[in-house]
Amino acid sequence: MNYIKVNFSLSNETEWKVDLFKDSLLQVGFDCFVDTDEGFEAYAPEPDFKQDIIQEIIKQSALENKENVKYNIDFIADQNWNYVWEQTSPCVNIRGLCLIRKSSQEKQNTLYDIIINPKQSFGTATHPTTYMIIEYLLSLDMNNKYVMDMGCGTGVLGILSKKMGAKYVEAIDIDSWAKENTEENAYDNNVVLNIKQGGAEVISNDKCFDIFIANINLNILKDNIPIYTKYINKGGSLILSGFYQEDIKELLDNVLILGYKLKTSLTKDNWALVVLEKQ
Fold first, then answer.
1. Which 8-state DSSP code applies to residue 270?
2. How many other CB atoms are there within 10 angstroms of residue 230's CB atom?
């Protein structure tokens, strides 16, 4: 598929405001981002690209220097996108315990070594939400646990859970590329996951989970947490991310009434992580 690349140059913008700007671009068809020294590159499939909406998104954004935002547009013919991301996505070492790397990158002296060859940019632990969840999982005893990775992306969270000793891991994503990529990455890491395409409707009816991870946007979480709750064991953990720090109260207002106790909340670059215990 042909792609359109838009190279944005931003001046002195805070990281969380740039993330909000990227989130707005995601809503109109952009699906991949690569940070640069001046800003970032945004990629959209050619059929989804609408040039006239870019100025409107800039105007409505939280960016402080909107008038100084510059961008140029390039057409990119169909190519091996996995190879492109392999060249641009860095490895991530989390607390010296877990390394997330591509197969072309060298191993390091970490307890967990995870190979992720992404079809897209999200899910390599470079994003704050993925990083926070991994950091939290590393503090848990995962032995013999049943784990759900909802919105699995590349499958990195489910793969780590399995390597940490989880007995059963289910990984679900709405996108076909995510299902395929999770299958590939699970194979490369020699772990077995139950991988499905879809949403909450495809959760295995005969399973209940000790750890239920959902790294999805706020509106989907609010709509689906009542469904997730049916599949979480009493005393089990619901780990939520994919939303901003300012959304924590709104999320908790929707979740605590369902019988959860707040265990902890974390933030990184204005992204949030909330961990709840089912009572």
1. T
2. 10
Own/partner pairs, 135-139, CB within 8 angstroms, 24+ separation = 135/94, 135/95, 136/239, 136/264, 136/266, 136/273, 136/275, 137/161, 137/164, 137/211, 137/239, 138/94, 138/95, 138/97, 138/98, 138/112, 138/164
Phi/psi region, residue 43 (left: phi>0; alpha: psi -120 to 50; beta: rest), is beta
pTM of structure: 0.73
Average pLDDT over residues 247-276: 94
Q: Read off the tokens for 147.
A: 């784990």
d(CA 6, CA 21): 13
Quick one: pLDDT at residue 121?
A: 42
Query: Lowest-confidence range among 76-80, 182-186, 228-232?
Result: 76-80
- Cα(59)–Cα(40) distance, integer angstroms: 18
Residue 23: pLDDT above 60?
Answer: yes
80 secondary structure, DSSP code: -
pLDDT(189) > 50? yes
Mean pLDDT, residues 197-218 taken together: 95
Q: With beta carbons less than 8 A apart as the criterion, state whether 228 and 262 touch.
A: no
Question: Which residues lie below 8 Å from residue 277, measured CB to CB, with a gap of 6+?
Answer: 235, 236, 237, 238, 260, 261, 263
What is the three-class DSSP state of 24? helix
